[in-house]
Design goal:
The protein folds into 2 domains: about 150 residues, OB fold (Dihydrolipoamide Acetyltransferase, E2P) (Beta Barrel); about 100 residues, Nucleic acid-binding proteins (OB fold (Dihydrolipoamide Acetyltransferase, E2P)), CATH 2.40.50.140. The chain is built from 6 helices and 15 strands. Strand 8, helix 5 and strand 9 form a beta-alpha-beta unit.
Length: about 260
Amino acid sequence: MQKRLSLGLVLCLFVSGVWGAALPPYAPPPLAGTVVRVVDAVTAEVRVSRLPSPAPAGLALDGVVPVRYLGLAASEGSQEAATALNVLLVGGREVFLELDTPERDAQGNLLAYVYLDPEGRLMVNIALLTTGLFTAAASPELRYGAALAHAAALPAPTLGCPSPVPWTEARGQVGKTLCVEGPVASVGASAGGDVFLNLGRAYPDPGRFTIFIAARHVGKFEAAFGARFWTRLTGKTVQASGEVRLYQGVAEIALTDPAALVVKP
């Protein structure tokens, strides 16, 4: 398991660290669609909802096309975390595509700059490069080659909480919003699908600190961390951000967003 970046942090890094690269004022991206499946760290399948006229060869409205992001590749050993980050950024979202030359690779993937906004200001390719999980694979001929290289050269961000509170101290701070850190002593899942990560002490020790994920949110965490991710966390150190509360005498944080959970390497 790898460290996590929140979408907000990625976009903040993009705006503060890369905006100075001054992307040229090209027209807004002419293609649009919805991501129906993230294939890997740099590829997603997109159902096309808008086409320019004339349309690029092989594209049709409501057709699904594999789109590979131009100018980057996942760093060696980071495929799992990089793919999870790609899911966080684009999974199920409407995206806007700008093509370059050539329009497709040898495998038939559409090659594109992928944006989260219709005006073409928030480029996924560049946002991913700022995380340290990707390397630039930009040739000088690419329209945004210089900006992609600049993003890749930025120092990798420090992930996780800068000053986490140890689980032993967090137990006495009910009602406060904290970033709590501790070793996972045991994990569990209820018959209804709720997930429990017990820090410091194993269930049922009342002195434990619990990270609780309700069943309705577990799917989001599995998309980010992998199927049945909790079964691989025993012995790992994790951080969880949220309000500390008491449930049947046990201190806990309830999580709804995968970005609030960090698994340290």
